[in-house]
Design a protein that fits this description.
With 719 residues, the chain is α+β, with helices and mostly antiparallel strands. Among the domains are: 4-125, Immunoglobulins (Immunoglobulin-like), CATH 2.60.40; 170-194, no CATH class; 418-433 and 451-482 and 494-530 and 552-681, Sandwich (Immunoglobulin-like), CATH 2.60.40.1180. It has 13 helices and 32 strands. The protein has an eight-stranded parallel β-barrel. A six-stranded antiparallel sheet has the order 25-26-27-32-29-30, with helices on one face. Strands 3, 6, 7, 8 and 9 form a five-stranded antiparallel sheet that branches. The longest helix has 19 residues, at 521-539. Residues 669-694 and 697-719 have low confidence and may be disordered.
């Protein structure tokens, strides 16, 4: 009978697939795995890719860190060192001792390690990922049947270490004078004790559900040595950080999210890794996983031309979907990967590919491969790009020249909107185009509108402190911003703390100041507003059912710069779902304001951000709003409404009304809709009902989401 250990030795087929970049489950054999030898002895099998070195030993607490005790054997080809070490138990500390060709000794954590020693320790830990009893079978079945483009997508972005903490007392060593480092110091004292994965599975899950979010997006959970990198400079791509518990506890957290109906999106960093000696940097004494160092961030950038690197990364994306049931992968820093000269300003240092362009052909091929492979094995897992340039066809299938993502962060919308919201009120008419410009491209890709962590850190100030005016106007501005984001086409993403209008910037070393909502009415009102707005969004299909299709949006008035007012229509699949939305970005309320509406009938106000229960002034519309036979905004009928100051309102047709007989032909509208502000009317062919989620189909510059998914590569039996 073949022993468990013998099945873990890499075959020639494994080595071939690894080198070709097509071993999509390389984590099943590389790294440390529990095994049993031929004589029945338990231990762990180790395998590590380290070509062109003299020797590799496994050292750890099980052998007293003896550098000669447990050598590994090198494969005939491929540079993989492997072997069985008996007697190793669960959660044993270990490293690879690599002797380079020139005689140097390197002490490396396992690139495929599933668990890591808690910082400041740098070793890997043995861990058996098998055996977790998932309880999300019904959720996963339902997920497989859903169309991700026609479901609510309202994401709560979270840094697990600073969402909440136990207490706020300084942790760590004080200075000689007895004081602790503060916010202005490079290494501030951690305040309070971080929540565990178990804590988060209760409290964070309950909070996200109560607030009405559809998903939580977790900033990188991969093991990383420096708290101040927020996880974006990892050392352990396969290890959920031990700061909050072990990998099975992280599985339990995701399981708890699923039980509450909340999806989990993981932030993933395939662009580069930190230079720390125990990590991937110069792994065999030379650049191996990497081929260059980022000029701005000093991170080591992956060499996508190497098959072993592609196998490592593509397997890693699948790893989080396979074993941790991730609902989405948000790929960080896509622009830094796509452009060969990203961050290089000196023309003399710029490089170009064989086509004479700046595209990193290896990187773009890797991105397409990752999205294709994920689409093959997990077509219901969302692939999301943080791409900050105008790179074309990000959410289109690779066979149509696209990158194959499902969604892309709309950084243009974020920058324009925040610039507009920071503008003082008398000057807003001059910046009005920043509100309407997004409609010129809003369906070119499947966009998510982010108000992310990057906007509330590093001196950018919190969102509320960027709002002009007095205290009341700042909070009203926050409500208007959230209202605009939720009613605008596309998915939504908000970083923790935005929902309570926290005044300080986000600090990774302390918890969000949720006590503000407990102690101060204004912050409590803001939290209640966001909660109610999220629930209204979830309950109204017009806000998400056609969020990525041009037929789901139509301008009413995109030309009212003088009054800083916009109005538009959002549509779902059913005619009765139609919503009429008006947002006033000026501080003046408008009584007896006339606006055109799409259909004759009786309307009612369904939501108003100026409601007194949200801290507003109470300029709302009560009762029935009956159409008048007076053309306006290019419509045959209109309403007269009260417009709230610095706020938004949502109307819906709720009844019929007899229309008076016309005595003469209708007069020409006294106001017209903007000539160039109706891109939604240039409707693309209607998207067929998609059986599986997919990227857009690249047939024109403005399209609805396509039902065509990225083409899957042919697989081999060894995959």
């Amino acid at each position: 009978m073949e022993s468990l250990d013998s099945t873990l030795y890499l075959s020639n087929d494994d080595l071939f697939l690894l080198a070709s970049g097509k071993w999509y489950r390389s984590y099943e054999k590389l790294g440390a795995h529990p095994a049993v030898d031929d004589d029945g002895t338990s231990g762990y099998h180790f395998a590590v890719w380290a070509p062109d070195v003299k020797s590799v030993h496994v050292i750890g607490d099980f052998n007293g860190w003896d550098e000669q005790a447990n050598p590994l054997s090198c494969s005939e080809t491929g540079g993989v060192w492997q072997g069985f070490v008996p007697g190793i138990g669960h959660e044993a500390l270990y490293k690879y001792l690599i002797e380079t060709a020139d005689g140097r000794k390197l002490y490396k954590a396992d690139p495929y390690g599933f668990y890591a020693e808690q910082i400041p320790g740098t070793a890997s830990r043995t861990f058996d990922l098998a055996g977790y009893d998932w309880a999300d079978g019904a959720y996963m079945k339902a997920r497989a049947k859903r169309d991700m483009f026609k479901e609510p997508l309202n994401i709560f972005e979270v840094h697990l270490g600073s969402w909440r903490r136990h207490g706020d007392e300084p942790q760590g060593e004080p200075r000689p004078d007895g004081t602790y480092p503060g916010p202005g110091d490079p290494f501030p004292a951690q305040r309070g004790v971080v929540y565990s994965y178990d804590d988060l599975s209760v409290e964070l899950v309950a909070y996200a559900k109560d607030m009405g979010y559809s998903h939580v997006e977790i900033m990188p959970v991969n093991e990383h040595p420096f708290d101040g990198s927020w996880g974006y400079q990892p050392t352990g791509y396969y290890a959920a950080t031990s700061r909050y518990g072990n990998p099975k506890q992280f599985m339990h957290f995701i399981d708890a999210c699923h039980e509450a109906g909340i999806g989990v999106i993981l932030d993933w960093v395939p662009g580069g890794f930190c230079a720390d000696a125990q990590g991937l940097a110069t792994f065999n004494g030379e650049m191996l996983y990497e081929h260059k160092i980022h000029p701005n961030w000093s991170t080591h950038q992956f060499d996508y031309s190497r098959g072993e690197v592609r196998s490592f990364l593509v397997s890693n994306a699948l790893f989080w979907a396979d074993l941790f049931h991730a609902d989405g992968i948000r790929m960080d820093g896509v622009s830094s990967m796509l452009y060969m000269n990203f961050g290089i300003d000196d023309p003399g240092q710029k490089r170009f590919n064989e086509k004479g362009t700046e595209e990193d052909l290896d990187a773009s091929a890797f991105i397409r491969q990752t999205n294709e492979v994920m689409g093959k094995f997990h077509p219901d897992v969302m692939m999301i790009a943080e791409e900050s340039t105008a790179w074309p066809l990000v959410t289109y299938p690779p066979e149509d020249g696209g990158l194959g993502f499902h969604f892309k962060w709309d950084m243009g919308w974020m920058n324009d909107t925040l610039h507009y919201m920071q503008t003082d009120f008398p000057w807003r008419p001059g910046n009005y185009r920043m509100l309407t410009f997004s409609s010129m491209y809003q369906f070119n890709e499947n966009f998510i509108l982010p108000l992310s962590h990057d906007e509330v850190v590093n001196g950018k100030c919190s969102l509320i402190t960027r709002m002009p005016g007095d205290y009341w106007r700042q909070f009203a501005g926050m409500r208007a911003l959230a209202f605009y984001q939720v009613t605008h086409p596309g998915g939504k993403l908000n970083f923790m703390g935005n929902e309570i209008a926290q005044f300080i910037e986000w600090r990774y070393y302390e918890g969000i100041q949720y006590f503000l909502a407990e102690q101060y009415e204004t912050h409590r009102h803001q939290q209640q507003f966001v909660r109610d707005l999220n629930r209204f969004y979830n309950d109204n299909a017009a806000l998400w059912q056609r969020a990525f299709a041009s037929e789901g949006f139509e301008w009413i008035d995109a030309d009212n710069a003088d009054q800083s007012i916009i109005s538009f229509i959002r549509r779902g699949d059913k005619p009765g779902d139609e919503l009429v939305i008006l947002i006033n970005f000026d501080v003046n309320a408008r009584e007896d304001f006339r606006m055109g509406v799409p259909e004759w009938g009786v309307y009612e106000e369904m939501f108003n951000s100026d409601d007194e229960r949200y801290g507003g002034s109470g300029v709302i519309n009560t009762g029935k709003l009956k159409c008048q036979d007076e053309p306006w905004n290019g419509r045959e009928q209109s309403l007269v409404v009260r417009v709230p100051p610095l706020g938004g309102m949502i109307l819906k047709k709720t009844g019929t009304l007899r229309r008076p007989a016309k005595k003469k032909p209708a007069a020409k509208a006294t106001k017209t809709a903007a000539k160039a502000a109706k891109p939604a009317e240039k409707a693309a062919p209607k998207k067929p009902a998609a059986k599986k989620p997919a990227a857009k189909k690249a047939t024109s510059s403005v399209k609805a989401a396509s039902s065509k998914k990225p083409a899957a590569r042919k697989t081999t039996k060894a995959e």
